[in-house]
Specification:
Blueprint: H1 7-138
């Protein structure tokens, strides 16, 4: 069993080469162009995605820095407000204490005057009562 090469083989080779050229021109080259364009778009999309990812990372870092700065500023303002409130509270309490001490001093002085006035009144009343008592015991008016 041997392979015989005759004219049909040459026709088959020639038909194959024509089919190959037609398929190359009509199918293979357009398909390779489509695949190349697709690869370029994919590569471009990946590069764009990388740039966007880098931009997002930079924006996130900037955002976090702004948040940290705002939080620190807020804490500083809160601490300053607390200090001012504490100082104002001390001032108000000091003024209230001073006012209370002044009122207490005035009240004590007034009570002291009232006690002295009451004592004077009691001394006068005691003198008058003792004079009446002596007159009743003696039975006659005293000079």
């Amino acid at each position: 069993m041997g392979i015989s090469v005759d004219g049909t083989f040459a026709i088959q080779i020639f038909s194959f080469l024509i089919l190959w050229a037609v398929l190359k021109r009509l199918l293979f080259e357009p398909m390779l162009d489509v695949l190349d364009k697709r690869e370029e778009r994919t590569r471009g999309s990946l590069e764009l995605a990388s740039r966007i990812h880098a931009d997002v990372a930079a924006m996130r870092s900037e955002y976090e820095a702004h948040i940290r700065e705002a939080r620190d500023q807020s804490l500083r303002e809160l601490e300053e407000s607390r200090k001012l409130t504490t100082a104002e509270e001390r001032t108000i309490l000091g003024a209230a204490r001073d006012q209370a001490a002044a009122r207490l001093t005035l009240a004590r002085a007034e009570i002291g005057r009232q006690v002295e006035a009451a004592r004077d009144q009691l001394h006068r009343d005691a003198a008058g009562l003792s004079r009446q008592l002596v007159q009743q015991v003696v039975g006659r008016p005293l000079p």
